Amino acid sequence: MKARMTAFVAIAVIAVGANFILGNAGFSSQERSAGPSVRLDN
Amino acid sequence: MLRALLITMLTVLFTSSATAQEAAEPDRSATGGAQTLEDILARQRGETIDDSFRSDDVGNPDSAAAITNQLGTLGGASDPELWRALRYGSADITASNKGPAATVLVQDGGMRWLTFREGPLVTYGGYLLLGTLALLVLFYFIRGRIMIHGEKTGRTVERFKWIERFGHWLLAGSFILLGLTGLISLMGRKFLIPAFGHEAFAFIAVGSKWVHNNVSWAFMLALVMIFVMWVVHNLPHPTDLKWLAKGGGIFTKTHVPAKKFNAGQKLIFWAVIVLGTSISVSGLALLFPFEINMFAATFAKMNSLGISGALGLGELPTVLAPHEEMQFAQLWHAIVSFVLMAIILAHIYIGSVGMEGAFDAMDSGDVEEQWAHEHHSIWMEEVKAKEGAAPKGASPAE
Does position B17 have pLDDT exceeding 70, yes or no? Predict the structure, then answer.
């Protein structure tokens, strides 16, 4: 029971972590595909 | 089933491009060399056509008139020739956005992908899952729940350690999430938009994509964990043949000796490892678009080894547009996932409602001794022998 709940929490932690890390490591779609002249944030 | 699906997929995709017709050049003098009504009709009928008279007719910059001459500014290619070059992907294009796909403006392979994705993939994939569910319900009514036959001892034995259960549930939880969100991504357009409307589906689709992309890492991590922890117990053994020959005793209601994992569980294990790895690799190709291109190389190997010929697929294309690599990755990802989902449905069934005492193994980690004796007798004897041999610290079962 404890192992299962821990695993489910781990899934959530890994997902949020992966999103954060990849987003900050330059792997967002915006950074990978848009050129410097594109201003998606503004 | 996987092979049949693969053959269907590849046949559909390549019947129109596999072989170049070596027929005599048709007379196109009436159109001045442009395509004729016959060419257009043949293409619309889906026939294999040799359109090199168009794809090669894209002008020649080397023979361009000087820039001061009439039409010299076009650089040796007329407008129709430029459009043809754009159509066949040979135009010299500069784009401000990055990535190999940016300079491919027309990609007609996309239509074959789209048609296959919303047609046979959704249809047969859906039938596979529904059919598996129906078979399991049928099996339940015919065979009923597999009960513990002998008298329960009231004693338990540890079957899976905490870390093993953690790895299993990490894999199971992520797989269920990935399966559901994958189905939403694939089938939502067809089934959810009509039911909930575009706005609600847009919300669901964005959430699904986020979950699918990010939960995938938990799945891949768990897949490695499961492989490392259980591969030793899943190597083939002579007892597996006996187990398989008796069908695991499922229909004869007998108990076949088995080690920690019986042959059926070993098949599930290897299906999860092999199919799960294939899904992970094609998933990574989709997660990092255009970075991992596997299909052109795979097709070249299949051609050279004669596999594509043996499967009746003819010569597979070895030059693929960047988009086509992604399209093949998506189709493969979905097809293999459907197969694994069907297998896992059966696994979930037998591990829960299908067998008394089975769920405890992954819930608390401890199983009833009588259950272990009936389903994994060799393993049970090994555990007992170890307990008997342990000098101290081995407390007797209550």
Answer: no
Preferred mutation among B98, B104, B178, B360 to probe A, highest tally of A CBs within 10 A: B98
Residue B350: alpha-carbon gap to chain centroid: 23
Please give the full DSSP string across A1-42, using - where no structure is assigned: -HHHHHHHHHHHHHHHHHHHHHHHTT-SHHHHH--TT--S--
Nearby residues of B260 by Cβ (< 8 Å), 6 or more positions away: B233, B376, B379
pLDDT exceeds cutoff 80 at B2: no
The reply to whether B210 and B122 lie within a common domain is yes
Give the CA dihedral B129, B130, B135, B136, nearest 10 degrees. Answer: 70
Q: Is the pLDDT of residue B210 over 60?
A: yes
Compute the radius of gyration of chain A from its Cα atoms.
16
Scan for tokens 């493969």, then name that residue: B332
Q: A with B: how many residue pairs have Cβ under 8 Å apart?
A: 67
The model's pTM? 0.83
Select from B384, B333, B347, B337 the least CA-distant residue to B157: B384
State which residues form the domain around B218: 109-389
- Of B69, B103, B137, the last residue of a domain is B103
Compare CB distances from B364 to A1, A6, A33 and report the shortest one's residue.
A1
